[in-house]
Amino acid sequence: MNRTVDMTRGNPVKHILSFAFPLLLTNLGQQLYMIVDAAIVGRGVGMKALAAVGATDWTYWLVLWTVIGLTQGFATFVSRSFGDKNYGEMNRVIAMSTLLSAASGIVMTVAGIAASAPLLQLLKTPADILGDAHTYLVTMISGILVVTAYNMASSILRALGDGKTPLIAMVIAALLNVGLDCLFVFLFGWGIFGAAIASVLSQLVAFLYCLFRIFAVDCIKIDRKMWKPDWKLIRQMLLFGAPICLQYMTISIGGILLQSAVNLQGSIFIAGYTATNKVFGLFEASGTSLGLAAATFLGQNYGAGLYDRVRQGVKTASVIAVISGIIVFVIMYLVRYPLLQFFLDVREDGAVQALEVAVRYLIVMILFLIVLYLIHVFRNALQAMEVSLWSLLSGIAECICRMFMAKVVIHWIGSDALFFSEPLAWFSALLCVVLPYFYYRAKRLK
Fold it and tell me: HEC states along 341-400?
C-alpha cells in the first residue's frame, strides 16, 4: 500500500496537523522507551547508574547527531524531488544518501569508541560512576550504524509524506525495548550494559520494518546504476548537509562543556539533572514533530514553486507552536513530581536531594517551551528554502551561551546557571533563524 502524501494541494493546517500527529506519537514512543530505559536503570540498578547514563548523554549525542544531521539534510533533497515529481532524481538521492550515511556511521563509530574513555575523563566524570558510564557509552556508540540506518529510513518515509510507518516501527521497538530491558537487567543481571543492548536491538527492529515499507513505495525503484557514486550530487548533498551536521556538532560540543560543569556537582546532582533531561524528550517531542511536519510541507511546496503555500505553512506552524507550548507547560507542571519520581527511589540515600534538583530544572525548562518550539519551525523553514548556513550559526550561538553559563555565570549564581543555560541558548538560536527567515522570505518567496 502506498502511504505517500502530496502536500502541494489542500489545506495547510490539515496537512501539517495530520502529519505532525503521527510524528508526535512516534517521537513520544521513542522518548517513552528511553524514559523506561532510564527508569529501569535508576530503580533497577540504582541512582548512581542513572547518573552514569546521564554523564554520557552529550558525548553520545555528539556522535549520533553528527550522523543524523547529514541524514536530515539528505531528506530535504528527497522531499524536494518528490514535490517536483522528479522520481528519477529522488531515487538517485536515496541511493547516495544511503552510501553517505553508511560511510559517516562507520567513521563515527570507530572515532567515538576510540575517544570515549579519554573524553569521559576529560569531562571530570566522578570516579564512582566512571566505569558504568564508559560501559554504557561504548555499547551505545557501537550501535550508531543501526540508529543511523533507522533515522535515514524514517527520514525518507517522512519526506514522502508517510508518518505512519515510523510510528508503527517505533511502537514495535518500544514494546520490544521494555521486554528486553526487563530480560537483560532484571533476569540476566547485565545492569547498565543490558539497558544499552536493549536500545540498540530495538532500533534495529525499527529500521528493518521501515526498510520493508520503503521497498513497497511505488515511486522508489533504485537499479544498480544508481548506486554508482554521483559525485556532483554527492557534493551538493554534502554542501547542504554539512552546515546542519555542524550545527548539531556545535550544539553537542556546548552540551559537553556544560556536562563538565554538571559533573563537578557530584553524582546526586547528575542523577537529578539526568532525570529532567530524560523527561525533556517528552516535551521536546511536540516541537520536533511540528518541525518535521513543517519541513515536509515546506519542502514539497518550495520544490513545486508554490511560495504562497510556503509562507502560509510557516504562519500555521508558528501558531501551532505557541498553542502547543502553553498546553505542554500546564501538563508538565501538574505532573512534575510523580513523573520525576519514576526515575528515583526516594528510599535510596541522596534520592530526595536528586529529586529536588530535577524539579527545579524541569520548571525552568518548561517556562520557555514556546521559544524552543518556534526554533524548530523557523529552522526547518530555512532548510526548506535551501538555506542551511543559519542553522549552523544558531547552533554556534547555542554553544556559546552554554559555555558562558557553565564557565562564567555559574560563579555568580551557582548551580542555577546550569538550569538557565538551556533557555538562554534557545533565545539566541531563535534570533539566528527568525531574522534570516524574514530576509529570505522577502527575497525568495515572491
Answer: CCCCCCCCCCHHHHHHHHHHHHHHHHCCHHHHHHHHHHHHHHHHCCCCHHHHHHHHHHHH
Could you give the CA distance from residue 344 to residue 357 in angstroms, rounded to a whole number? 12
Please tell me the distance from the alpha carbon of residue 207 to that of residue 212, in angstroms, as a whole number. Answer: 9
Provide the strand spans (E) within 170-239.
Answer: none
Instruction: Encode pLDDT of 223-253 as tens digits.
Output: 888 889 889 888 888 887 787 788 778 878 8
- φ/ψ of 106, rounded to 5, equals -65, -45
Q: Are 271 and 360 in contact (CB under 8 A)?
A: no
Residues of the chain with pLDDT > 70, as a percent, come to: 98
Looking at this protein, which amino acid is placed at residue 438? Answer: F
Q: How many CB atoms lie within 10 A of CB 235?
A: 10
| pLDDT tens digits, one per residue of 325-348 | 999 999 999 999 998 998 888 888
Q: What is the DSSP track for 268-292?
A: HHHHHHHHHHHHHHHHHHHHHHHHH
Distance between CA atoms of residues 198 and 188, nearest Å: 12
Q: Looking at this protein, which amino acid is placed at residue 103?
A: A
Query: Phi first, then psi: what are they for 110, rounded to 5°?
Result: -65, -45
What is the maximal distance between C-alpha atoms in the chain?
Answer: 63
Place of cell 533557555: 423
Provide the 8-state DSSP code for 408: I
* Amino acid (1-letter code) at residue 435: L
Local confidence band at 446 (pLDDT 50, 70, 90 cut-offs): low
